[in-house]
Amino acid sequence: MPSSPFALRQHLLTALTALVFGFLGAAIWSYSGLADNRTRSFLLDNPDMLPQMVEAYETQEAELRLAGLGPEVFVEFPGAVLGNPKGSRVLVEFTDYNCTYCRASLKDVDRLVAEDPDLRVVIREYPIFQGSDISARMALAAAMQGKYRAFHDAMFQTGDVRAAAAAAKLDMARAEVDAVSDAVTAEIARNLELARELGFAGTPSWIAGRKPLEGAVGYDRLKAALAQKAPG
């Protein structure tokens, strides 16, 4: 599943290439050879236009999908939040503890939180890697004890559920029950469905301001997107 965004991008790139050169073929049939040659030369001299077209198309489609969702995507599972729990500026992150890019992005999120006391970071546990369901469930169980941040950080540091739970000082008897509760199961199912509706297929994925983003996009892109007012 994590590789599917690349496959989708390649598919779109192929389709757009065919579309562009299909139009070009029609132009060659209809117009003067000089203008056609200039158009063809321009496209061949600027092959980076096609990936840019794909990215613009993907962004447009993701924004349309986001606009079609209700406010639910901006509402955290109780306790599964970083930064200011009552902040009016919202960053949503779909994350997986077995994702190295999610781990690398933690410093960007921490920097954004440190700089903006009004930022609320809604974490959506999105376990798409093998074995990630256990850590995602324990993270939500930690949220139910008010210890989400401690577990979240420790899990990325250690990569071990038991060690992270110990570091967060969880009540393990309670956590093991909560981890398999209907509430936690429903939350993970909800996150998987929200990601599907948004067209997300990898981690990390984000909603920053009005902009859905995929991948370890970095601090600058997240900060710029957050400058826009979030929908809802």
Quick recap of the structure?
The protein has about 230 residues and is an alpha+beta fold.
Helices, strands, pairings?
Elements: H1 4-30, H2 33-45, H3 49-68, E1 81-83, E2 89-95, H4 100-115, E3 119-125, H5 132-144, H6 148-158, H7 161-167, H8 172-179, H9 182-198, E4 205-208, E5 211-214, H10 219-226
Parallel strand pairs: 2-3
Antiparallel strand pairs: 1-3, 2-4, 4-5
Helix pairs in contact: 1-3, 5-6, 5-8, 6-7
Structure write-up:
The chain is an alpha+beta fold. It folds into 2 domains: 4-68, no CATH class; 72-226, 3-Layer(aba) Sandwich (Glutaredoxin), CATH 3.40.30.10. The protein has 10 helices and 5 strands, in the order αααββαβαααααββα. Strands 1-3-2-4-5 form a 5-stranded mixed β-sheet. α4 links the parallel β2 (89-95) and β3.
Q: Nearest-angstrom radius of gyration?
A: 21 Å
Tell me the distance between the termini.
Answer: 30 Å
Do you know the CATH topology of the largest domain?
Answer: Glutaredoxin
The largest pleated sheet is described as: 5 strands, mixed
Features:
disordered N terminus; alpha+beta; 232 residues
